[in-house]
Input
Amino acid sequence: MNVFVTGGAGYIGSICTEELLNAGHQVTVYDNLTEGHRLAVDARAKFILGKPEEPGDILNAVKSAKPDAIMHFAANALVGESMTNPKKYFHNNVVNALKFADAAVECGVKKFVFSSTCATYGPPDRVPMTEDLPQRPINPYGEAKLMFEKVLIWYQQIYKLEFIAFRYFNAAGASEKFGEHHRIETHIIPNVLTVALGRKPQCEIFGTDYPTPDGTCIRDYIHIVDLAQAHMLGLQPGKTGFYNLGNGDGYSVRQVVQTCEKIAGKKILTVEKPRRSGDPPRLVASAEKAVRELGWKPKFPKLDDIVATAWAWHKKHPNGYAD
Ligand code: UDP
Output
């Protein structure tokens, strides 16, 4: 297929692009490089430097690529930042996303694949979380993603734009070539590994008084290549709806630090800080629906393996794409 990947220079988009190309698809990447990196774009893909705020830029890019499918990754994705700058989240993650959906309708694109998030649920009544749980986000990031999920439901019903939306839990790990490099890093695994590399003296643990066994937040980490594989399964015609992507295992922040220490073979100094606002205590997926309906089969379900691939990439690229 001919696939138009928005945000293909970012962490998740770059590895999905790589996997699409490995599977024989053609890819056009559209990215404005505010979060992404030009070096993260696989050389086999066509690259468009996007200006999403400019009228007509998105529509013209989609028209010129004539894709069969759009995979929409371009977004801001920091829970904490969304609590202090909600405007950024509603503009980029809703208004700009709408421009891609409109362009898809206008250009007769067959499939729209959307990066959604477990943050659309808010704190769940039970774990593991299935797709039918109520969605009550507690941060603007989750709210903006939920708003766009609703757009997709109506666009499918009325414009017949077939969509599939993946609610990611915590994407982590790396492929051999591409990995996680945010200019301002807030995610736990890369932050801990930066300490292991000796580039920072210590890492912070946000909140030790949560109602969890060790008092720190619990998350479900999913390998980035497994996530990419799910997107490819989602391209099959007729596959539509919402799917959680996670492994069904919850790890606390302290357990993540211990795993990083084990894989890197280094002691990691931590300091305890107050809670970060907008963080639900426990998010663990049930991805049974994706397994059952899409035939999804994660290759790297264990946190050890996820961290090992991240560590290998960070050791090779201590400055990320700035090298
Ligand atoms: N976290 C932490 N220290 C850090 C970064 C994150 O304690 O330096 C915690 C954060 O509060 C959350 C968990 O680790 O409970 C996962 O956060 P991350 O930002 O990696 O992903 P999120 O769940 O927000 O998407």
User: Anything to note?
Assistant: The chain has a mean pLDDT of 97. The domain at 2-172+221-245 is CATH 3.40.50.720 (Rossmann fold). Residues 79, 170, 186-188, 191, 203-206, 217, 219, 253, 276, 279 surround uridine-5'-diphosphate (CB under 6 Å). DSSP finds ten helices and 13 strands in the chain.
